[in-house]
Amino acid sequence: MEPSPVEAERLRSLRRMKAVALGLLIAAAVVYVVTLIDGGEGWVGYVRAFSEAAMVGALADWFAVTALFRHPLRIPIPHTAIIPKRKDQIGRSLGEFVESNFLTREVLGERLAHADIGQRLGAWLAEPANAHRASEALGDALKGTLEVLDDKEVQHGLEGVVRRRIAATPAAPLFGKAIDLTIEGGHHQRLLDSVLIGLSGFLDDNRATFRKRLDEESPWWVPEPIDDRVFEKIYTAVGSFIDDVGADPHHEVRSSVDTRVASLAQRLEHDPELLAKGEALKEELLDHPEFRAWIESLWLGVKQGMIDAADDPGSELRVRAATSLQQLGTRLSSDASLQRKVDDWVERAIGYVVDRYRSEVGDLIANTVERWDGESTAEKMELQVGRDLQFIRINGTLVGGLAGIVIHAVAGLL
């Protein structure tokens, strides 16, 4: 795989430091050869001692650094290539180190105590653009959640909830209560008015049909003019009666309707026979295939509507969400007590997650390292810390040279 830009830069930096360390070793070797040619008297002896000890220090530290990641000169010397050989133990130790020293309530709590999350969140949400972005994120989360849900499972659960709710509610008393509310509001009289208007229109539309039926029922020996007069009399009387009932709010028919409707409401609430019939009708309704089809269409319609609303920036859902989030941010940025509540909630939530799932992080680190091969592990770790380790080689070269000078001076004194 092609390295990322960050990895490529680290690789270049590592190579530069290796070149510097190697250059110092080569320089020490060249100086040592030159001093051998010129002899070892006077100050030249100190230079030779410096270069000789510097080579020893450079080679020793090169061996030590290289032995961490691979076999020096590809020779399988014992206790070299430490990281490739012990990568699993290193991964497990690293996971335990992170788990024990970073993922704790104490460490995270101390950090969160000075983070002022509530105030920062409020100030961020108070900006309209940020509130819009937050509503967009919520919309995407809602859309993604709805799209991955199993429709059959949701429909089954919804059907169970609706069935239990309906089954627990007696049908007849519910209808009786609805009728009582209708009577209290006078809605049944308005319904009666509508029925009367419809009945009057029905009579007008079917006048010819009723006249023909009278001809069919009337004896053959009755003259037609008499039939006309009888029909006109009956038709006019019925029309006048409907008009009278419709025009008089205190008509006896209306009083009779009030009495019968009220009686029906009482029977629906208390008559055992009607109660049993209501429950039987309810069970028949719940077992009907159309009921399940209605539940299915209900969920699919709600789901699609929510997906469309979550995906549309101009939908009422998204607009209301953005407005609500902005209002929450404005309040949160100035309400200290609300800020403390948010801070406490975040701290408790993170503490809960840490207490129960921090071992998962350690296992994730260990399992990830276990899946790497030894060579890749060594390369990854060398890429992270190898540049700094080259300073060990550089320091070894310089410190070794200085130690050589000290040893040469002491030997001369002795």
Describe the structure.
The protein has 414 residues and is an all-alpha fold. The protein contains 18 helices and no strands. The protein starts with a helix and ends with a helix.
Give the topology:
Elements: H1 5-38, H2 43-69, H3 82-85, H4 87-101, H5 105-113, H6 117-125, H7 128-148, H8 151-167, H9 171-184, H10 187-205, H11 207-217, H12 224-247, H13 252-270, H14 272-286, H15 289-311, H16 316-334, H17 336-371, H18 374-413
Helix pairs in contact: 1-2, 1-18, 2-18, 4-17, 5-17, 6-16, 6-17, 7-15, 7-16, 8-15, 9-13, 10-12, 11-12, 13-14
Name its key features.
single chain, 414 residues, mainly alpha, rod-shaped
Quick overview of this protein structure:
The chain has 414 residues and is an all-alpha fold.
Could you spell the SSE succession in H and E letters?
HHHHHHHHHHHHHHHHHH
The separation of the N and C termini measures 61 Å
Q: Tell me about the biggest sheet?
A: none
Total helical elements: 18
What characteristic shape results from the CA principal axes? rod-shaped
Strand content: under 5%
What structural class is derived from the secondary structure elements?
mainly alpha
Summed over residues and divided by their number, the pLDDT gives a mean of 84
Gyration radius from CA atoms, angstroms: 47 Å
Low-confidence sequence ranges: none
E-strand count: 0
Helix content: over 70%
